[in-house]
Amino acid sequence: WLNPGASVTLSCEVKPSSAGWRFYWYKAVPDFSTNYYRYDPLPGSISGTVENSFRIDGQKHTAGFTCRAGKGNPEYLTDYSEPKFVWTSDPHPAASLSVSPDREQHFTSESVTLNCGGNSAEWRVKRFRDGFINCSDSWEMTGSSCTINSNLSFKSVFWCESGSGEFSDAVNISVHGLLLVSPVHPVTEGASVTLSCRLRGETKLSDVIFYHNDKLIQNDSRGELKISAVSQSDEGFYKCEHSGEVSPQSWMAVKGGVFNALILLNDYFAFVCFVYYHCHK
């Protein structure tokens, strides 16, 4: 998560690479009429840049960005890159996403409700899994809520978008048989957190093994992993094991430091927009 007010440097790459390109930079704005995004030029970039990077100072809110390149006379323009999102740890975001039950991992065939909150009259829940799709493409969207119920295991990233252009934070949601019960939203540094392992129909398991970044950190009969004061060193991937079955791993983010993890949505494109950060205390 990016601290509000930090600087963001966007970087574009054309593949295969060659000289002579001029680069154009845009903000991705939700467009409900097309069910995708419109691309508005960033201030100071309408004429393009010779450099393949563009710095934005004072980024305060979650936003999506894209880029394209052109060369020649008349100018040939590439397609737009897929949007890249920069998620900020804004303590008072204009849009929010709540998950019920409030955890990252859920059982197959369990109903999970994703609810958007904010001042907008129009909302959509977006999902990224091998591409950008609407939650309503697979499940039921009623008002500002989308209810997930899947018989198959999966893991995806979800977030809310409003008709007035706001984005919520993004959350990972996975569906599986054995669950690691962990926070769906970033944990504040210094707070306490308890992780546990669950099977369908079982309220609490004992003799559970917990892993942090694939390193065994607890193996006893307690069945829970308690962290009394979360620090930056506790951030990372967690999973649990019970009777030889291993849960999917979940990322536990910690907010309060200079820089925390970003949820990356898209990695491989012929024309790619990369995002880098310059954070300020």
Explain how this protein is built.
This protein is mainly β and 281 residues long. The protein has three domains: 103 residues, Sandwich (Immunoglobulin-like), CATH 2.60.40; 86 residues, Immunoglobulins (Immunoglobulin-like); 78 residues, Immunoglobulins (Immunoglobulin-like, Sandwich), CATH 2.60.40.10. Helices cover 0% and strands 51% of the residues. It has no helices and 27 strands. Strands 2, 3, 5, 6 and 7 form a five-stranded antiparallel β-sheet that branches. A five-stranded mixed β-sheet has the order 9-16-15-11-12, with no helix packed on it. A hairpin with a 2-residue loop joins strand 20 and strand 21. The C terminus is likely disordered.
Number of domains: 3
Query: Which fold does the CATH topology of the largest domain refer to?
Result: Immunoglobulin-like
Uncertain parts: 257-281
Helix content range = under 10%
Overall structural class, as computed from helix and strand content, comes to mainly beta
What's the gist of this structure?
With 281 residues, the protein is mostly beta strands. Helices cover 0% and strands 51% of the residues.
Summary tags:
mainly beta, Immunoglobulin-like, 5-stranded mixed sheet, elongated
Helix-strand layout with pairing:
Elements: E1 6-14, E2 22-31, E3 36-41, E4 53-59, E5 63-71, E6 76-77, E7 84-86, E8 95-100, E9 105-107, E10 112-118, E11 123-128, E12 132-134, E13 140-142, E14 145-148, E15 154-162, E16 171-176, E17 178-181, E18 187-188, E19 193-199, E20 208-212, E21 215-220, E22 224-227, E23 236-242, E24 245-246, E25 250-252, E26 254-255, E27 271-278
Parallel strand pairs: 9-16, 18-26
Antiparallel strand pairs: 1-4, 1-27, 2-3, 2-5, 5-6, 5-7, 8-10, 10-14, 11-12, 11-15, 13-14, 15-16, 17-19, 19-22, 20-21, 20-23, 23-24, 23-25
